[in-house]
Amino acid sequence: MGIIITRPSPRVSTGGGSSGSSTGSTGSTSGTAGTTVGKTWGAPAPAPAPAPAPVPVWGTTPGVIITTPPDVAAAGAKSAGKYVPGDPATVPYIDRGNSGQYPVVIVTPSELNTGNDTKVALPPIPVEWIIAPRNITSPDQCPNAGATIATFAATDVILAVLLIVTAARSMLYRASCHLFGKRGGKKVYWTWLMWLVLQVTGNVGAALLVVRTEGYEHLEFLKVFALYLSRPRLKTWWLAILRTSFSVGGRRFPDGNTRLEQEQEQENEKISLAWEKDGRKEKEHIYVDAYVSAALVEFIFQISAAVFIGVTWERFPNEVIKQYMQPPLRFMFAAPGIMLVAISVGVPIWRITGETWGWKETVDKDPETKKVIRRRSPPSMGGIRFWWVIWGSLIYIPVYSAAWVYWTHFLTLPGALWCPPRLVSQSAIWILTSI
């Protein structure tokens, strides 16, 4: 059963009295008596009708970043942040928050109990995606679609620059006075939990900032938290590029020969025999730990976002808008599967040393000493390593693009129902908890 919101019937002017007009001859006379100039009889010819205003074409209106397509506009959708006083698609849902029910029935007093009280007002977005205060007093109070997109993009760009320094193991090791970022071991298999806590803390902080802002107290914290899980995040893709592209270390010994036999004789030497060949030492990829942690966290977020999106849009009754959103929704549902392929065979998280792919290991037996010697041939940037860098970069494009496709479509819909406060502060929280 919907909630009935009454509004007064529009005042009808019945009018009385009459208005008169006089028509007659108009003209002008010259200064000479008896001479009449320009005398006209009857009503003047009507002025030509003004030319109709050009109809804006979706996506091409000058000065508009995101506009609403005509079919969903008829269903009540407007670009994010657009406030229309008295709009039946948004006003009944603004003060109800993000936990209301469908639908809201709007009738006028004269229609109550007459059988005509079935005017249903459906919101342009699922109620769980509403972030709006109880009262909107100004058309400029809400950030528009461009401001939201710019905030998401700026967050990613700033974070990408900072991660070049903060995600490198060697730099973290020096900056923390050797407390963190120690080389070796399998600590990455549990340190990703720390990354998960930090990322969750960032979303918690942004959600708390929203629900504790004056006017937004009626919003549910958990739904705001879950909503932000779907925002675009460049972090994992960027670290995948850094992980496959950059390495440090490696040196050539003066004699130019291998030290495999020497290492076999020194049992206390902990360096893997497979690390050196022909006087070269396998280089360390300093972004491996950061990439593995970020990839695991992002995979969890992708699954959580897909579940929240699926549940909220499934119960959404506005069929016109739901149909419009089907392509980006399917893209978001596919993102976790693509992410699984990326972390399994694209830039695999289970390879925590060396190149992602391309090393060849050979086992030889010295005919004189009868010792087994293991050798590994490193790939070159001009060979297989180069193509795996390209592959590792490309496979994350659909994962990152899915969120952008979803949000650019979503922001054409909510009107004043998308009115998050203090977007810049939310961006700062996301950055600080992701570096």
Q: Count the DSSP helices.
A: 14
Percent of residues in helical segments? 40-55%
Taken from the alpha-carbon principal axes, the silhouette is elongated
Q: What structural category arises from helix and sheet content?
A: mainly alpha
Biggest beta sheet summary: 3 strands, mixed
User: Gyration radius, to the nearest Å?
Assistant: 34 Å
Strand content: 5-15%
Total number of strands? 9
Q: How far apart lie the N and C ends?
A: 48 Å
The main sheet orders its strands as 1-4-5
The SSE order reads: EEEHHEEHHHHHHEEHHHEEHHH
Mean pLDDT: 75
User: Regions with pLDDT < 50 over 5+ consecutive residues?
Assistant: 6-40, 250-280, 357-362, 378-383
Task: Tell me what the structure shows.
The protein is mainly alpha-helical. It has a domain at 145-248 and 283-347 and 395-432. It contains 14 helices and 9 strands. It has helices at residues 70-73, 91-94, 145-166, 169-175, 188-211, 221-228, 235-245, 260-265, 288-314, 319-324, 326-346, 384-394, 397-410, 423-432; strands at 3-6, 26-29, 36-40, 104-107, 120-121, 276-277, 280-281, 360-365, 372-377. The strands form 4 sheets. The chain has a 3-stranded mixed β-sheet, with no helix packed on it. It has a two-stranded antiparallel sheet with strand order 2-3. Strands 6-7 form a two-stranded antiparallel ribbon. A hairpin with a 2-residue loop joins strand 6 and strand 7 (280-281). Helix 5 packs across helix 6, helix 5 (188-211) crosses helix 9 (288-314) and helix 9 packs antiparallel against helix 11. The protein is elongated and about 115 Å long. Residues 6-40, 250-280, 357-362 and 378-383 have low confidence and may be disordered.
